Automatic annotation (TrEMBL):
Residues 2-237 form the ABC transporter domain. Keywords: ATP-binding, Nucleotide-binding, Translocase, Transport. This is ABC transporter. It comes from Oceanibaculum pacificum. PROSITE patterns: ABC_TRANSPORTER_1 (PS00211), ABC_TRANSPORTER_2 (PS50893). Signal peptide: none annotated. InterPro entries: AAA+_ATPase, ABC_transporter-like_ATP-bd, ABC_transporter-like_CS, P-loop_NTPase. Belongs to the ABC transporter superfamily. CDD domains: ABC_Iron-Siderophores_B12_Hemin (cd03214). The keyword Transport applies.
Length: 250
């Protein structure tokens, strides 16, 4: 579905990272981990086409995405950026409907079909009851679900989530992770960044460890999220404990 082929990324002439080769199949979830400033968001923006690749390629089902229009990209990639306060002065239903913009022609207004898709995405995420609520007045966890619904309203093949659980309480973190798991089970490919290896163990099939813009390790979670790799990534001793079928990172 998605292949990063020897990709370099950065801002203008400033290279933040390079030499990345990664693969993501349909329905797979990839967790990207790395210290602050290691280049996770810059990499995401490059994959999404918000920044041009400085070298290498972003391939979607074998096709190089370099020349794609924003509309073409929006039909492949749904993006939920790092959490932001509830600044949209709109209802939840309107925020989700905005996700249909990429599917509309120039100057076209949303049609009944677009409203139906938006409503279906609210249902899919279990938040249909919030439709009429003011987006700025719902909880942080609910807002994150609404933003995921908005990205899904684009009907993308790949969902990119930048630290989707940051600033959420424990229960809402769980809610978002369960949602990620469910969506990948429905065939969506998902790339997410996180500062919590536990989360990668909980939801991801693959992990990529980014240190100073370079891949320290990448591959299936059990082989990649090892004590040695995580200790090297974060520069502190990391121990993994298995408790009730889950892996906890200490
Ligand atoms: N617009 C920009 N121009 C130049 N450099 C930038 C720009 N935005 C970010 N950087 C730099 O790029 C590097 C990587 O930043 P990035 O935000 O991609 O890291 P990150 O891994 O997502 O960090 P965090 O975990 O803290 O969110 C940092 O050194 C940052 O200062």
């Amino acid at each position: 579905m998605l292949r990063l082929d020897d990709l370099s990324f950065g801002y203008g002439r400033t290279i933040i990272g390079g030499g990345l080769t990664l693969d993501l199949a349909r329905g797979e979830t990839l967790a990207l981990l790395g210290p602050n400033g290691s280049g996770k968001t810059t990499l995401f923006k490059t994959v999404l086409g918000l920044l041009p690749a400085l070298a290498g390629r972003v391939l979607v089902e074998g096709a190089d995405s370099a020349g794609w229009s924003p509309g073409q990209r929006a039909r492949i990639f749904g993006y939920v950026p790092q959490s932001s306060p509830g600044f949209f002065p709109f209802s939840v239903a309107e925020v989700v409907l905005m996700g249909r913009t990429a599917r509309l022609g120039p100057f076209a207004a949303p049609a009944a079909q677009d409203r139906a898709v938006a409503a279906a995405m609210l249902e899919r995420l279990g938040i249909a009851h919030l439709a009429a609520r003011d987006f700025p007045r719902i909880s942080g966890g609910e807002r994150q679900l609404v933003l995921i619904a908005r990205a899904l309203a684009q009907e993308p093949a790949i969902l990119v989530l930048d630290e989707p659980t940051a600033s959420l309480d424990f229960g809402n973190q769980r809610l978002i992770l369960d949602t990620v798991r469910r969506l990948s089970g429905q065939g969506l490919s998902i790339v997410l960044s996180t500062h919590h290896p536990d989360e990668a163990f909980a939801v991801a099939d693959k992990a990529a460890l980014l240190r100073a813009g370079a891949l320290l390790a990448a591959g299936p979670v059990p082989a990649t999220l090892t004590e040695a790799n995580l200790s090297a990534l974060y520069g502190v001793p990391v121990a993994l404990h298995r408790v009730g079928g889950k892996v906890l990172c200490v």
